[in-house]
Amino acid sequence: MSLRPAPLTGIRVLDLTRVLAGPWCTQNLADLGAEVIKIERPGTGDDTRSWGPPYIKDASGQDTTEAAYYASANRNKKSVAIDIASERGAELVRKLAAKCDILVENFKVGGLRKYGLDYESMQAINPALIYCSITGFGQTGPYASRPGYDFMIQGMGGLMSITGEHDGLPGGGPQKAGVAVADLMTGMYSVVGILAALHERDRSGLGQHIDMALLDCQVAMLANQNLNYLTTGVAPKRAGNAHQNLVPYQVFAVADGHLIVAVGNDSQFRAYCQVIERPGLPDDIRFSTNPNRVINRDVLVPMLADAMKSQSRDYWLEALERAGVPAGPINTIDQVYSDPQVQARGMRQDLPHSIAGTAPVGASPLRFSGSPVSYRHAAPLLGEHTEQVLREQLGLSDEEIRQLTQ
């Protein structure tokens, strides 16, 4: 079958974001085929350009000047170096916004007003523009003027209160996630909001302002833990690698390491007990149903832990898979990329890069049968597309571009 263009082909995005939440949003739009024009500060660019090492390697294995952090969230974009603090620079950005479908920014609340780049100014120029603002705390509320960063939001938003080992055990205490999940989830929620606004624009012909806050997204993504609290009035606590609502659903030590067992229902528990040679446990009223297992986890789990120590990780993985019991290893990231399933799904891509030749990226997880994700190039050099965009989109002459970029 012939493939169609990527879903957002023909959509143009003006990207005034930096660091992670905003760039993650716009990278996803770019992967979906949108033309993303990233405006960067001349000379320095996105803050994360300097967040190294590590750096992208060139063909000889030597470091380039391109930070891996920056490269992780900016593929498929065009970089245009313009000083928005200058009158001429702000004017050019306004002209670009007039030709765009979407604008994404993550400046402080009100921070773009002095440049005439706020939502009200942009709406007057382009009523169909979808304008997405990403901040720590949103456009309203007592914290609206505060800066917000992922680490502090994970703490304020409750995630660190439920992440990590039990307080009374070695290693207990507050723990952040291993990646900036508040930033990443805000970026993803922003994509959802933008796509919804694009669909609504098909009916109304009008754009709108989307107000995204890291704290809002962090609270929303607590999911079942929100309801664990809201239905009981009792705040959940850290449970290590155990699940608050399922037993057994945790890490077990085995003869040569560790293994995750994720029993999701009573039939799986019965099968699991057969594999570990404890067939009588499901007939015990204390363990016969998941609610009873949750209530009696302190009695049950030590029995299971003792049984799991008797065999190796690979033995259990094979036996549990054969019995239909969900289980998995705890891989390091190098092991992740060596996993045949990850390789079969193409989760590593190597894209053209202006100075490295090619650069690796972690692929998009989106799979379309008819209009696949578009991989065009790795993250751009600072200002790499300034001349191209200003000439093609705004019709600037070589002399005008030269004066601007001096």
Automatic annotation (TrEMBL):
A GO molecular function held by the record: CoA-transferase activity
Highest taxon of source: Bacteria
InterPro entries from the UniProt entry: CoA-transferase_III_domain (IPR050483), CoA-Trfase_fam_III (IPR003673), CoA-Trfase_III_dom3_sf (IPR044855), CoA-Trfase_III_dom_1_sf (IPR023606)
Protein keywords: Transferase
Keyword Transport appears in the UniProt entry: no
Name under which the protein is recorded: CoA transferase
Organism: Pollutimonas harenae
